[in-house]
Amino acid sequence: MKKKFRFQWGAFLLFLVFAGLFFILTVRIVSIQATGTVEGQELAAKAAAKYQQEEVLAAERGKILDRDGQVIAEDTLTYKVVAVLDESATQKASNPRHVVDVEETAEFLAKHLGMAEDKVLAILEQGVEKDRYQVEFGVAGREISHTKMLEMKEEEVPGILFVKDLKRLYPNGTFASHLIGFAMKEETKDGLMVTKGRMGLESIHNKALTGKNGKIEFSTDKWGFLLPNNESAVTPAVDGSDVQLTLDKTLQNFLEDAMTKVQKEYEPARMIAVVADPDTGEILAMSQRPTFNPNTREGLSDNWLNESIELTIEPGSPMKMFTLASAIEEGKWDPNAYYNSGTYSLMGTTIGDYNSGRGWGSITFLEGFQRSSNVSMAYLLERIGPETFMKYIDAFGFGKKTGIDLPNEAPGKVLDTGPIERLTTTYGQGSTVTPIQMIQAASAIANEGVMMKPYVIDQIKNPDTGKVTVKSKPEKAGQPISAETAEKVKEILASTVTSENGSGRPFALKDYAVAGKTGTAQVPGPDGRYINQGKNGFLYSFLGMAPADDPELLVYIGVQQPQLPAGEYGSAPVAKIFNSVMENGLKHMNVKPDNAKSVKTTELEDYTGKSSAEVTEQLAGRGLNVVVTGGSTKVEGQYPATGEAVVEGGTVILKTAGPSILPDFTGWSKRDLLAYQSLSGLSVELAGQGYAVSQSLSPGSKVTLKDPVVIRLQTPENASQIQSTDSFEGAPEEPAEDEAEGVAGQDAAEPGMEETPEEAAPEENGAASEESGEETPADAAEATPEEPTETVEEPAEEGSAGETIEEEIVEDPTE
Question: Does residue 660 surpass a pLDDT of 60?
């Protein structure tokens, strides 16, 4: 019997279900293969995230260098202390890799890190309680030196690890600190520690110095091991650019040393100093006090201003050199014309000379300038004309920014609101300036009438790529006066230092002629009125250049409120800085002394490839000292270079191969020593500044490249710092508290200008002449010096001339 076919609906449905699922799965697989995504997520990206690893390649922060490439700021290797607490770090009990004894470890770390033992113990115990793998110890546990790390390792305390780190190092310590600033570690939002500039050039050029981090990418298995045949992708880090300054490290050290000595001796409230090249506008040194050490931030106060450019001051008598220049340029200067010194009245206001308005009778304008007479400036203003004078003040750059390549420069304020304000501006009272404006303006006098714009950045260059992003060049800022006028002003400024009547006598140098102007400015207090502290209440300054006939250096020094001992003038602390820096600086620059005798010079040939013995014989015959770096007979290099002239008795260094025989370095300059180091390749370490006085290995020693040679340098004795007081008569006299201001608007006495008893004698009553002051010698002989009236001006709260009041005139002891 034939079976009847029965359709299996259940099997059919089951087939459809599995067929449908297979179809869906096939479509899904094809879709994934085609698109590479699942639910909108890239599978390749997820796999890469799981097995692809990435490490950051940190960019090295750029260096800050001086004009010769010597380091001012750089990164240096340090270590971070870590204590491992997890027992899993130890593989063998005989060699523990974690902290075994918490109390012993706390005692060890407290001793080396300078932390309280209980605080270290609390950090360790808290880490154990919270089951942390390791703990750190904050700021105290960072920036550990290599020497300290080795010292700690010697004690072999288990569980203590040292992680390499970088720290910003300032090898010179206190060195133009408010200009350079500092950088320090900061934590980012991602938890990374990065070095960031917080102040000064470190902050201003932080982006250029920081560079850009790189990375390295590689693949691992799920256990973290590198996959075979894995190719890593490297994006190299771009190191930060180096910022090269115009500063001269040696000059800066001269300045820092001199300022530190004066700070200790006189404890002034403030000091500011700037050294510049008047021919180019390059700033060669810049500093201030109080200051700080950027390595430790010790001494850093809430004053972060670079006061040379951000602080405004009343300039005092250095302003007179620009009044003088204006008069000469306008043809209104007659050095032999006479005027009545003492006091000068204008619109009911009386100004006086620094000796309480007594003056010196009828004197010439030249003598008046040498004595720093305020009244002489008043008569010059009459001759020049107020409007014309203010045009010169503007042409010299006062009242506006110099444009130096630093931020936050203050423009100062020139008072041009009335006749009294213009009058007091002629001798530097009322109007305000910055020290950098004084340097720029004086560069016109030093540089044949051409005023040079100051700058401090030489270039910003990436050392890896060689790319230069900033390159500065000397820039003319104007020409307020002619070359002829500039020459005459220099001659008159030089006479203030050499004349027996000159206020600048303490600034005379032993080997170089100085041209400059002293100053004593009143200092406004918090209430706007001038500080009344007798001779200790002024800003003493000097703006000078040398050599006077062709200045190589231009220097401004300001010392505010020094604590002067009895019998000492305000010029003393200023001169101790200026004289030291100028004398040593010019010698460092190999500037020929004014009293140097004419000597023979030899122009060097190219001696490369020649016999060292023949070259030595040839140069020795011309009176030159020849030093050969090695034992070979063939010359491979030389210093100085081909074409340079060397004076008789000078040194020529010849580079040859082979082991070196040390010469006697005594008396060598730092420049010659660096040249010898470069040519010989020896490890030469220079300690100090100035000229070589001793060496660690004796002359004639045979040395290799691995043998270190330490040479100690010392600055020459500065005999010119002895203040010549033999021509001064009398001792400084302290004014009474209610009489210290004296005649309105007058400067205090110039250093060394104490009167003789004859000058201080009472004089006949009368009014100061308001004429131009041009008198013949005959007229002057008949003129009787007049005693100033008791009508004097008290400084207004704004620092400008105020209304007249009745007060006894007394003599201020300083200018």
Answer: yes
